[in-house]
């Protein structure tokens, strides 16, 4: 999704969530500088998005959210059929079941021990910088391999915006942007009552965005 298309949606989200875009912009620049330093060391730690496209294009993609039902739903999946994309905290559930996701889409607030271990075992890290996770970006990104940077604000030369707001819906936007053959969702519960009011608002947006990008329109 081009930023010209995403921008108006992003402004709705900022207004609804009472977030300040300035902090998202600062976080994107911070991540960009870290990635630039990693690239200058000529280490294969920062990936071109062509690697993501090669991993996803034309494939059957399994997007794993981190809702409580994930641990039961994974028992019914033949993971050999899919390229597995984990939304942040879903990584821990998958790893506990012996499954290493192909891609982790994360804003670094899951169990980072699990995510780092999964990364060491081969997972591509699509790391998202936003106004509330600058400390985490600074602490963890230097330790990661096979990283692609993302923002929900205006993209930079090495920090991309594929669309999406929460980890779960950003997985879906990423899959579509990279040309997925099909997308299957597990581990999603948009009406989970056992979450904070802030998380409830995020779940509302996640559902709207997934409905939009999968062809059902943004607003009722």
Kindly describe this structure.
The protein is of the alpha/beta class. It has one domain. It contains 9 helices and 7 strands, in the order αααβαβαβαβαββαβα. Strands 6-5-4-3-2-1-7 form a 7-stranded parallel β-sheet, sandwiched between helices. The chain is globular, with a radius of gyration of 16 Å.
Give the key terms:
220 residues, alpha/beta, 7 strands, globular
> Which radius of gyration do the C-alpha atoms yield?
16 Å
The shape is: globular
Total helix count?
9
Q: Considering DSSP H and I runs of 4 or more, what fraction of the residues is helical? A: 40-55%
| Average pLDDT taken over every residue | 94
Given helix and strand content, the structural type is: alpha/beta
Poorly predicted tracts of residues: none
Query: Which percent range describes the beta-strand content?
Result: 5-15%
- How many separate domains? 1
Strand arrangement, largest sheet?
6-5-4-3-2-1-7
Q: How far is the N terminus from the C terminus? A: 21 Å
Q: Count the strands?
A: 7
Q: How is the main sheet built?
A: 7 strands, parallel
The run of helices and strands is HHHEHEHEHEHEEHEH
SSE inventory with pairings:
Elements (H helix, E strand, L loop, with lengths): L2 H15 L3 H20 L8 H8 L3 E5 L5 H4 L9 E5 L2 H7 L6 E4 L5 H9 L3 E6 L4 H7 L6 E5 L7 E2 L6 H11 L4 E5 L10 H17 L7
Parallel strand pairs: 1-2, 1-7, 2-3, 3-4, 4-5, 5-6
Brief summary of the model shown:
It contains nine helices and seven strands, in the order αααβαβαβαβαββαβα.
